[in-house]
Amino acid sequence: MVFKSSRSRLRRLRPALLLAVITITVLVYLWPTSISAPSAQVVVSDQLKGDGVVCPKSPLLKDVFVVIRTGATEAQEKLPVHFKTILTCVPDFIIYSDMDEIVDGHQVHDVLSGVNETIKKTAPEFQLYDRLRTRGREGLDYETTFGSGPSGALDNPGWKLDKWKFLPMVDQALHERPKAKWFVFVEPDTYLMWTNLLEYLRHFDSSKPWYLGKHIPL
Predict the structure, then answer these.
(1) Residues 55 and 193 sit within 8 Å (Cβ to Cβ)
(2) CA dihedral (96, 102, 107, 110) positive or negative
């Protein structure tokens, strides 16, 4: 009788026990997401909710100036995807190239315009630049420039011209944003992890001279 009575009580308690186990499991699973996120974490921008784009909110947003270096042989191919993705969250950026043009409604600036004229006339890499200045995109030889990138033409003159852009790019970026605390230089075949970058820079003192990244031999 005692054994049967205990089994009877267990049957009556079984629904309650099952409910308790389910409740505890759900609470344990959801507990980490119920903690309030710090203010520096990702939030949805009011302007971009309709597009489903999630942008970071950080006190560093106003201090970072993103500089994209590209060239006429690749700009129209590689820039548009950035305008539709990561650059929707970057409030302050500029694009430097070897030709002034508009790509998807964004101004692309000729960063070589201030290079010494003697260098432009004597350095063989500037032959492409001369054609771009006089003929625009009609000056491109697509037999050597089409498919710019790892699978593109090895003799792409745009690649050879790139080495003349680095120093003018740094100088013009500083002139454009003299009060910026961070200058981030990227290329159009680089995907910028914007949220991670802001969090990473937060650990550095911007009043000190930092060079973060791989060196570039010129």
Answers:
(1) no
(2) positive
Contact 58, 38 (CB under 8 A): no
**Residue range 68-81, pLDDT digits in tens:** 999 998 899 999 99
* pLDDT the model gives residue 2: 36
> What's the CA gap between 121 and 76, in Å, rounded?
27
Integer-rounded Cα Rg, in Å, for the chain is 28
Please name the helix (run of DSSP H) or strand (run of DSSP E) that holds residue 20, with its range, or none: helix 2-30
Our CA dihedral for 150, 156, 161, 167, rounded to 10 degrees, sits at 0
Q: Which two tokens stand for residue 119?
A: 């260098």
- pTM: predicted TM-score of the whole model, two decimal places: 0.72
Whether residue 146 has pLDDT greater than 80 = no
